[in-house]
Amino acid sequence: MAATARTRRVLVFNQYAKPLSEPGGTRHIELFGRLDGWDYLIVTGDRDYYSRQRVEADQKHFKRVRVSDYEGNNHRRVLNWLTYCLGALATAFRPGQVDVVYASSPHILTPVAGWLAARMRRARFVLEIRDLWPDSMVDLGHLRPGSLTHRALKALEVWLYRRADRIVIVAAGWHEYLAALGIERAKVEWVSNGAEPADFDLRPDDCRPLRDRLPVHGKLFVYTGAHGPANGLDALLDAAAELPDHTFALIGDGIEKPRLVERATGEGLTNVHFLDMIPKRELAGIIGAADVGIHVLADAAVFRHGASPNKLYDYLAAGLPVVTNCPGDPHDIVYETGAGMAVDSSDLVAGIRKITELDSSSLREMGRRGRRYIQENRSRTVMAGRLQRVLDSVLPARQ
User: Could you tell me which residue ranges the Glycosyltransferase subfamily 4-like N-terminal domain spans (predicted)?
Assistant: First the structure.
């Protein structure tokens, strides 16, 4: 009689991972929690990425490691990354089974720690790319192209790609980017970000819908997510200034938020409301009461390689029509499904203005089309199936 196949174990390195009970990135708990035959531990930092407040609560599948504090993009932020990597490595060397180390960017030091942990534990190394480092740093003005630091980071990037047993990308367009660096396509697997439509059903008994939290007039537009240089939120404030008869809610945090709040106040944009970050479970229950979701990014060359924005999938899963100015896959999804307005990078205001002219029935139909697309193509369940195949292929089950 054959022995029962043992449960395999994957160690996930993601400094910014969050459980569903907290605001922030829940990609990994949603994906790994749907796998069959795998146990997992997500190693995350103990300080919130935006508020920089130490978070003490813990979860069964989370291990928090101490990281240093920082403000702004300076040497203290690099120290923050380094302290996370040291803590993650210490976790990897504790007693217990480790079959796969799954290390996720955006910053490139986490994959370095993941590779080292995999080597020391004789485990397989899966590298997940959620941001094209260092190209995104160059495009957003944080790194001078051709500088010694830039060349060193590019060399490290390629070095990691070549040493990974498998590479997971969140945007399908990055296949071509990796191919241009000499990485064989068979080594790369696309596991998009996504959302589970059932999680976004309105639950007024559990939380207050967005319309009950704000003074709303006209259509209610919602933006959820980071408030940073890459997000191009000045274009959203431009739209609010031109459309004072409609309401705009921005939910989230980031280094640009104080400046954006100051701008809105200084310009007297009383139709703009800034809300703090909201835990994913609560957020899922409130945004469906909005009329339109806004997906906006800065006009940066790196985004033309592709993008996989969680906020876009959240809106669509919630049944919201969407206005997006992001090229590539986000534009194609919204345009081809008829789930909203897909515009050029510089045309966000025009797209928002156009959607205000539609009646409620047209908006509801857009929302239904988008939700159906997510259910069939980009749900967490669908993408967990793709991740399952990656892990099963890199480490077949042992009998």
Answer: 37-194
